[in-house]
Amino acid sequence: MTDNKYETYYVPAQSRWPIVGAIAMFLLAFGAGTLMNDLRTGTPGMGKWIVYAGLAIVLYFTWGWFKDQINESMGGLFSKQLGMSYRQGMMWFIGSEVMFFAGFFGALYYARNFAMPWLAGEGNNAMTHALLWPDFIPSWPLIKTPSGTVTEAMQPWGLPFINTVLLVSSSFTLTWAHHALIAGNRKKLIGGMLLTVALGVAFLFLQASEYHEAYTEMGLTLGSGIYGSTFFMLTGFHGMHVTLGTIMLIVMTVRSGKGHFSADKHFAFEAAAWYWHFVDVVWLGLFLFVYIL
Fold it and tell me: What angle do helix axes 159-183 and 267-286 make, rounded to 10 degrees?
């Protein structure tokens, strides 16, 4: 392949990794369902071992596929059309992630603006209010459930605010590193990446501390009603994305140290940066709609 021409028709090279990844995803899904059934029935089963097998294959195919991609890139086996397909693929991926979080934000909006007023008797739901929860007073956060579970609301101006500062700062340090890469300053590039990784790790540490406080001191759990379930679903999935993004940034830092990127050829770095900035924007939405409003 050449880097200066578009192919008439692009055919990707043969690879075993997609089918390996499909097998891993199947084992994870099947194992998770089996594990939930095992936990429900209280009987030991193969669920957790199937999940472990799926995770092991995920790690294997991720390492192998990324290794092949890096080797192809360093060997010059790419073209403009291939680069365009990479960019389109990353944009579709981030678009799917936008829809993923939109679903959870939509659930939060529905619970707060539709379900709670209906339970309070608004509209034609007076009978529903009388039968299901006659003492219900709509307010958010919903810290008392019909079953009597009482919890506390997570305050925004402690650890959540510090985490917001950390993530916003990480976007600036990552952008600084990107400009250093374009300018050919390897020292500043690596320094900016190390700062960004450190901020990501600090965020995860503080979120783990927040979860520990929620479970041990506040009674705020996944089982503490709609507030607890939406809180942990949104912040928990975001934490998983921060974890993935931090791993990506660590890989980019190592590759930067090995001199893998140049000013005009560094899409892997850009893809990780796109993902990280997306994660930061999602957190700003979380901080506003989950913690403050």
Answer: 160
Reply yes or no: is the peptide bond before residue 160 cis, omega within 30 of 0: no
- Helix pair angle (159-183, 225-257), 10° resolution: 30
**Residue 123 vs residues 114, 127, 129: alpha-carbon distances, Å:** 10, 10, 11
Once rounded to an integer, what is the mean pLDDT over residues 204-232? 91
Domain 80-96+137-292 top-level CATH class: mainly alpha
Give the integer Cα–Cα distance in Å for 270 and 255. 13
What is the reported pLDDT for 11?
65
- How far apart (Å, rounded) are the C-alpha atoms in residues 52 and 44? 15
Which of 281, 283, 273 minimizes the C-alpha distance to 248? 273
Q: In terms of Cα–Cα distance, which of 107, 234, 284, 278 is closest to 292?
A: 284
Give domain limits for the chain. 13-77, 80-96+137-292
pLDDT at 69 over 90: no
Answer CATH for 13-77 from 3.30.390.30, 1.10.760.10, 3.40.190.10, 1.10.287.70? 1.10.287.70
Tokens 């043969």 belong to 14
Q: Is the dihedral of CA 268, 273, 276, 277 positive or negative?
A: negative
The amino acid sitting at 244 is L
Q: For helices 267-286 and 80-110, what crossing angle results, to 10°? A: 10
8 Å CB contact between 120 and 146? no
The proportion of the chain whose per-residue pLDDT surpasses 90, expressed as a percent, equals 59
Minimal CA–CA distance to 249: which of 156, 170, 181?
170
The Cα-based distances of 168 to 200, 232, 286 in angstroms read 10, 21, 13
List beta partners, residue 144.
150
Average pLDDT over residues 175-191: 95
Q: Which amino acid belongs to residue 292?
A: I
